[in-house]
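Structure (tokenized):
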């Protein structure tokens, strides 16, 4: 991994995945699950759980960039806008710092492909050492 190196992934979640996340976590807030309740909210429809939306960073770090052997150390983030099911989003992870202990600071951003607006911004620290041959 090198400074300024980045990875991008497009993704979306379905309402069924939101419901599965609610069942796994126990977060059954009706803003995520109940169409009628959500219609009366400021969002006018159901929104995804913030941590379901941001879980894509775990997928990227663990499977793609850098991938196998990466260890998540921390994640900070701001939820800037609601995210909705069946909308395509773009997650971008970029190396912004590193140290001699094989730790890397990553910028973590999600934007909507519909309007380009940022929905989540943050940073993560990971530990990663290239496997020796």
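Design, position by position:
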């Amino acid at each position: 991994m090198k400074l300024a190196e980045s990875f991008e992934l497009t993704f979306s979640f379905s309402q069924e995945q939101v419901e599965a996340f609610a069942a796994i976590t126990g977060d059954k807030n009706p803003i995520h699950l109940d169409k009628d309740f959500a219609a009366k909210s400021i969002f006018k429809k159901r929104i995804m759980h913030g941590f379901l939306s941001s879980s894509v960073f775990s997928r990227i770090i663990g499977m793609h960039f850098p991938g196998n052997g990466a260890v998540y150390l921390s994640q900070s983030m701001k939820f800037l806008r609601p995210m909705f099911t069946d909308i395509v989003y773009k997650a971008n992870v970029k190396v912004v710092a590193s140290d001699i202990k094989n730790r890397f600071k990553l910028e973590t951003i999600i934007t909507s492909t519909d309007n380009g607006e940022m929905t989540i911004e943050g940073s993560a620290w990971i530990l990663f050492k290239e496997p020796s041959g």
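Reviewer-requested clarification: The two ends are 17 Å apart (CA to CA). Residues 6-127 form a domain with the Thiol Ester Dehydrase; Chain A fold (CATH 3.10.129.10).
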